Protein 1
Amino acid sequence: MSRKALVISPELCIGCRGCQTACKSWNQLSAAKTTNKGTVENPPDLTPNLYNKIRYVEVPSESNPVRWLFVSQRCMHCDDAGCMKICPAPGALFKTKEGAVGFDKEKCIGCKLCVAGCPFNIPRYDEKDKITKCNLCSDRIAEGLEPACAKTCPTGAISYGDRNSLIGKAQGAGYQKLYGEADLGGLGVLYAFKDAPKVYGMEENPAIPESVIFWHKVLKPLAYWGLGGAVVASLVHYVAFGPKKDEEVK
Amino acid sequence: MANMVKKANAFEILNHWVMAVSFIILAATGFGFLFHLEQLNSIFGNFNAMKLWHNWSGVVFAVSLFFTIFHYLPVSLSLGSDDIAWISKAGGYFSKKAVVPPQDRLNTGQKLLYLIVLTVGTAIAVSGLIIWLRPAAADIRKWVLLSHLVHNIGFVLMVTIIPLHIYLATLANPGTFRIMVYGTVPLEWAKKRHAKWVQKMGF
Amino acid sequence: MTNHWIDVKNADVILVMGANPAENHPISMKWIMQAREQRGAKLIVVDPRFTRTASKANIYAPMRSGADIAFLGGMINYILKNRLYFREYVANYTNAAYLVNPDFKGPGQLDGIFSGYDEKTRKYDKKTWAFQLDEKGLPKKDMTLKDPNCVFQLLRKHYSRYTLDKVSAITGTPKEKLVEVYKTYGSTGKPNRVGTELYAMGWTQHTVGTQNIKAMTIIQLLLGNIGLAGGGINALRGESNVQGSTDHALLFHLLPGYLPASKASLVDLKTYIEKLTPKTKDPKSVNWWGNRGKYITSYLKAIYGGNATKDNDFGYAYLPKLNEGQNGSWLVLFDQMFKGKFEGFFAWGQNPACSGANAGKVRKALTTLKWMVNVNLFDNETGSFWKGPDMKPQEIQTEVFQLPCSSSVEKEGSLTNSGRLAQWRYKAVEPIGEARPDSEIMNELYFRVKKLYQKQGGKFPAPIINLTWNYGEKGADGKIKKLDIHRVAKEINGYYLEDVFDKKAAPPKQIGKKGHLATNFVTLQADGTTSCGNWIYSGSYTEKEDKVINMMARRGKKDIGGLGMYPEWAWCWPVNRRILYNRASVNPDGKPWDPKRTVIKWNPNKLDPKTKKPAPGWDGDVPDGPAPPMADEKGKYPFIMRADGMGAIFGPGLADGPFPEHYEPLECPVQENPLSKKHRINPTVKLFYGTTGPHDEPKKEGGSAEDIFYSCDIRFPYVATTYRVSEHWQTGVLTRHEPWQMEMMPQQFVEIGKELAAEKGIKNGDKITVSSGRGKVWAIAMVTDRFKPFKVMNATVHQVGLPWCFGWQYPENGSGGDSANLLTPTIGDANTLIPETKAFMVNIEKA
């Protein structure tokens, strides 16, 4: 199956947060008791019960009092996912056939390493220390439906579909390059930004933390080589030099 | 029966075994996590149980590591010219003719091993606790990543060094292993290998 | 809406003023953004606050609340000065060429008023506003538009006073922004350019609300934007079915289908028809309201059935009558209630204790009631008013009945959206507990009230006893067991009670069979042979070839010309016409002004689909009448609902003047009207407190202390406005019980500009008190760049804004705050009495 993706277009997003509610509704996530902190944005951060949140970004504008941008924050469904890379529990995080990063709370061991391994700081853990995050409504997309957020979006700011054709469509609409097109092996949630990503509060070149890469590329093999080497060296030594027999010791 | 001298008391022996067993569990589960070894499920049941084994073995390991301080740290820190000479002769492991300088209760290799185990073990324990307990801090994700790195570097060092230690304490040096069983060694055996210690003890 | 939601995608320029669709009508943004993205349309947002809609605008122009007419007047002036108007359209389709009585004088000559004003009655004698008539009784015209008494020249004269400098000084909008907006919107005066306007409560809830819209109508007529796809004047309705309830006579002065309510002076049906039916002597004018007699008679037949006979004047006497000059609008009702004139009150699907202007007064008014019935999904601030803040329950005698009703998804029925599209909806789930659909509650109520009248007689039982109520199978007690909503829909559509013939045809042609559902309102009769509950809905539930069809339940997806009209999707009043006044979308020869946006087109080669014989006619949308184009001998004018068939640039029908004139809100930051010293506020509004705007000590003249207001008063120095947010629905009764919505928008807030906040030492997130002459509320300060200070008449004016979706009753711990309507004044529009809640004065202090 071809990889599926979302394209999020802040230019089309009106900040109505229909997607924030639709996500909660479909995934049956409870609400938190919040207070108004002097901003429309609420809750202040993703939580185990908030997979998708609209960030309200205010940046200076020349012609207007302010430039107000609305950006959906959620799991990016990286092809090369930091969370999956660092996860010690097989099957806790997995790729669905549509290319989404799914999670299985049964298999999650609650180590929370994924929280640190994610370049976008997305995963949260629930009261049982199990991972929670957007899973691209994997139950819906498996049935050929679009994710709840895309379904409810009134303006088409969240569009779901075949990743390649979405990219093609965006190019047709004048977006030379989508955010996440090539990052991390290609994100499953792409952003049609008109300006530099940092304007929208996103990192320019998102990447899996270097330490995780180093661990993955160097330390993991070294662990094998180290253990194996030690055993082999011992054997070789035993054969070549033999034990220090008492009578030989001076 | 030859003249025996006591080299390790019961507590030291017990502590060493506790450490050894916890280490093996830690190393095995560690490999399991690292390489998603689902075969280990036949031992631990599942990865959730494995994580419990790993974490609590870590606690046991850390406690036993703490007690080793009383057993090995003072002697390990008493490094001198003899130790340098020992190193220059590679402890005599690569030549039957080499004559190594007289050694204390622990030989230079054992001292160094201990210092490494103490340092790396502490680092692993502390980093493990940080990953496990995630103390509230603004940049906890960075701390966890650092801990993850430290934990894994420590892991690589440990799984490399400890097998060597096991080899050296068993096959490579007949007569050594009994210390961890009976705590005693023949005086003559000790004199050859730990002359300084034997001397200090007044035998 | 003259047009419809989807049609917004066809616009070249979209002016959003007096509305905030991104937050209150999110789905409309789909079409707005489509117009922007796909046709490069320009979105202009004019609003005191930089809203979520403004964030999507090509041009945002800030404007002080209550200065819309100044802003739009400036635009009219700009359009005329720069000759941006669509001359052919203006000359042919509007009353621009009409000559007005030479005695007519405007506010420029009379210091703020039009000729004919009577200060005592606060009303106009409109004699001088009349058109000059020729010997045939038709308005005199000057097609060159040069006569100084012609509407076009009067318009020019009137708005020449609205110079850029003056407008900027009144509105606080920077001059260059004004020019940018005027130029961009003015660009739609070309035949191939179309602009649309979207408004909502930001325009209506002012003392000059009707005139705000009238001003835009003038602009749209000048630019030739009415009747075209992508054009029109589009009211964004605040609830999904407000259009439907308005169509069905929600307002006190109307009967269903915008027939005027009866009043005492209209003693019988003949008088009603004679007095209220507009007449024209112009053969080219369709004057559709000339059919009023058919519609009122069919209406009476619908509600009184067999009890409405020729002999009893079709039961006309049963209709409730307004006394002469009686006003039953919201403000007046609650004022009367406040004064103890009511015994009982049905609060049906509403929450006046939060939604009503000057909610503190409304809450006090409720205490005077003997009984109140609160029909709602949840208890609310209205149902529990007696235990609200500052109430003494032990002193309140009101007995409150709470009737739980089902929600919109728990019942079947039709719903009419802003675009007049009536869509049938089905029941998704059963109502919870004892909740019942409103119609079932009404059925029960009707049965019981009728029984009482039958038993006890009462003063005038006939109107109730004689009502038809054939909405289902009756039990032994005569009560409908289960109300069949389809029968209601059919009654609204209407029936042929006899065989009906077109008597104009020779020989008379049968157009309706006895006992069948009416085809449409064209076939309704004034002789009692047809019934129709609401003439504009005639055709919504009809018969085709003897098969009953619920047109509102249709779900066809065929379109016409890619314009998004979807004529087979549900059903649109009138007669499934998707764009009103569409005859104005073509030139007098019937050719579309813009062939790329063909709404209708005259087709001289059209064939009759059945006989295949030539039958010239219209292609496209259902035209405003089948008559040939205007230039044809038998042609008709495009604005068929107007007696003269012309778009009214000069509108003598309104209470406050034929041209919109800027007046300040009741409470405003300036001492006097910058345009005229004498009349600060609309001279024709009904005053509840005092006769003049008190600048210092308010005087009590016939009003109550609750109606007090403070204009240009140092104690209340900041302009305020109220609004809704995407996250809550109206007063929040539905959404405050919805934890997901509360999580996003948990508490009352007030948006304050950074400059004002700095002045007052207020920090973002501080709890502050907002107060007006009527009351106060606490709110969390949202210190923001989205409000900027205005430069009004050389002074700095700050504006703040707060939503009215919160109430004390829920959340139960009071953490949400209370309604912003505790602050708003008791004053309404001169024509409609819609309360002025969008511009008033407040103070803010740290709590």
Protein 2
Amino acid sequence: MQDRIHTGMTLEEKLDVLSDAAKYDVSCTSSGVDRKGDGTGMGNCSKAGICHSFSSDGRCISLLKILFTNECIYDCRYCVNRSSNDIVRASFTPEEVCTLTMEFYRRNYIEGLFLSSGVLKSPDYTMELIYATLYRLRHVCRFQGYIHVKAIPGANQRLIRLTGYLADRMSVNLELPTAGSLRLLAPHKSRRNILTPMRLVQNLSEENRQEIALYRNAPRFVPAGQSTQMIIGATPETDRQILNVAESLYKKFDLKRVFYSAFVPVNKDSALPVLPGDKPPLLREHRLYQADWLLRFYHFEAAELLDEDNPNFNVLLDPKCCWALRHLEQFPVEVNRADYRMLLRVPGIGYKSAVRIVKARKMGQLTFDDLKKTGVVLKRALYFITCGGRMMYPVRMDEDYITRNLLNTRDKLLGGSDGITFRQLSLFDDMNFNGVDIR
Amino acid sequence: MRQIYICTDTITGLYSALHDAWAENRDGDAGISLKGRAQQQLFCQYKTVVETEQKARRLERMIRRYMGYNTYWDIYHALLSEDCEKGTAVFRTMQAARRIEDSRRIMEHLGDQDVAKVFAMSRSVSNEAHMYEEFIRFRELDSGILFSEISPKAQILTCIADHFADRFPLENWMIYDKVHEVFLVHKKQERWALVWGGMADADALERVSENEKDYEKLWQIFFSSISVRERENPKCQRNHLPFRFRPEMTEFAEEK
């Protein structure tokens, strides 16, 4: 490791620099694998994942998210670590990463390690360092907690394969939704280069599944599957394009998760857009995640949610409400009879409450009070369901009427932007009825 | 006359009370109150339960056998709740289970008031237990023991014990529940145990190991640098991580 600059840095300074550089990676899940400790080391994994803290931006902290190094030979325009930026550069040693992980894990600060890296010298060289770190962590420190690692595009296939046997999840960042934007903002990366390791991990996982079926104790390759992320709002794609990309990734590459990262302008660059109000497009990111959930858990197709006439999500209503409003002919549904898939499509009914409804109605007719207890959000669901043939209140099945009512429940948030500007009068309000301006 | 059984707020106590109530009043109306938290009512008879391990084991076996493991799980968690009426709700749930054809599926019967209550209590206790699996912070004492203090609403120590025992089999660790004054103790490569009424030397708990302060500092550095300033959202943070957990967490230590 003679190539490192700033050899004199303390561990504190390094952690500060390298966690700060890693924070734009959104993925911080520790889910997807259930593993008990074998009693010889430290750590276990739980299928649902465990968050250990929440930072002041409200995102969960589950893993020790760091870069191995923030030195990078690439010059991607959106990235804080691009080679042309003048920032403090630092690198960990494998030993340092292991000590930090083990000591944090012992104190129950974290659920495991998220190791990403800038590309130091070459993809192979970087991947080798990552492999060395994971090897030490698994076999010397006997760490059995969660490890999420990045596959560096362009690295040797054998290295990626070996690393995959040590990690729980691997990810390759798609960076930007289309090949065109990638060419524009990340000139050193190509779509093909990114998809190759993704395909490799997919194929190796498939092979591994066969091995495990044959030999129960065969080593597991990336048991929690692979994920990816893309940046939203740096390039002019519509929500529809993005959602279609996500859907095909789920279908063709068998991904576990696609993460969306609202573009945060860290660099000043002429190719990057200027954001309105200098705020990252957080609402857009939120709507994409909502739609992503509909794809993965609610049996929706991307084409159902958005079409050519509506290429972007509604700002005011979530994707499920929008879909329901456009398909009012299928509503209201009778809660006591509708099948599970239809229940899933009702706004205000989640997949947990749908399961509970299906079970509970075997025991007798459900009423609106019972629905509330199962966790249904009635203020949204009441426009779309009947209980025993009756709706909760008389509702006109009319798109405008329901839209207005759905929005009214959040009146405070919207401040009358839906055209209704009523407010409660109080005795001492000066409403200026005479039309005389007293100012 | 309605019979009310009075017991201590422990699993053994509640199981014993349920045992007696079931033996004497399974077809009638009965209530279970907690010692020191019972409100005297008219037209009720009060009786203090003799609590034994044997009664508790017998009742546990009965629930598991006739109501199934999943119902047992819910009832166990509900009985750890801080609600005073938990015993009565469980008793009535057992009565309701008797009336339906398949008693094992009683927890699906959410239309019943008492079943719904047991379900709600079980959910709230297991949720709180999960929160503590997330938010417990250990500090290393100079004796090498990992120590943590918590103040939960429900008696969640037994719910989190297996998780941490599996996670840190080679460590000596200890969790102290300040509200209910119970220790959860785990010795290296042994099973965990609950210790009531023990008192630890307050000074010994403050003497942390040599490196402890360094790692606390490192964790605080990580915690502040990982946040994206442009996305600041304290309300969201508060939703996921309520204020009541924070005094005992390392990363919020400065705000204390």
